[in-house]
Amino acid sequence: TTGSSNNCTPPHGFNDFRFKDYAPGAFRYFRTCFGIDTKDFSHSLCDKAMKELSQSGASGSLFYKSYDDVYVVKTVDEREAKFLQSLLVGYYMNLAQNKNTLLPKFFGLYLYSSRSQHFRFVVMNNLIPSYLKLDETYDIKGSTFKRRAKVKNDINSFPLFKDLDFLDRHRDVILFISNFKGLVLDPQYYGLIISTIERDTRVLSSFKIMDYSLLIGIHNISAHVL
């Protein structure tokens, strides 16, 4: 049967479902800190269908992107949802003390359940907008053990490189001697990034989180100048 209307939900053509908003006050505060208007937030997620991203996480989570490219939605299991809720106080303290944090920005945690479906999802900021053409993207863990991207035959797929790929692709070869070059940054930006990463890793350590990585996207300006 299709769902009937009530004071909270307008008439719709879907089966009856239940929708739960976890810690709404806390996430509303986070959104306010990031300058996000509640109505704009709702419009981005609900006005049009979201786009499913082709690359899912190693955990099997599904990823979606809002139609306006602002938010990413990730499915989480019950354990992950409870863990995220347990981090809210520490997350708030880090947000208050470190405005430049590179940790994901969480805007909401929700549950959708019906007779045939039951899943939880978290809404985060989209770090890589589609209007910016990225030439290289890396998932860096600081380890070289099995840290090489799998070769894909699909020429249209955009590979997510890993640590060994980063080392291979950012070397200078002079007189047959290979030297790791890395990324060259202005001293002020380098200092800011390093201090922010150090603070963020201390926060993750206090949460006893070990399995994390740094997402690096590279846009070569010279390659896209007409």
Automatic annotation (TrEMBL):
Ranges where the PIPK domain occurs: 1-226
InterPro entries, per database record: PInositol-4-P-4/5-kinase_C_sf, PInositol-4-P-4/5-kinase_core, PInositol-4-P-5-kinase_N, PInositol-4/5-P-5/4-kinase
UniProt GO MF annotations: 1-phosphatidylinositol-4-phosphate 5-kinase activity; ATP binding
Keyword entries, A-Z: ATP-binding, Kinase, Nucleotide-binding, Transferase
Transmembrane segments: none
One Pfam family, short name: PIP5K
GO biological process: phosphatidylinositol phosphate biosynthetic process
Highest taxon, organism lineage: Eukaryota
A GO CC term assigned to this protein in UniProt: plasma membrane
Protein name, as recorded: Phosphatidylinositol 4-phosphate 5-kinase type-1 gamma (Trinotate prediction)
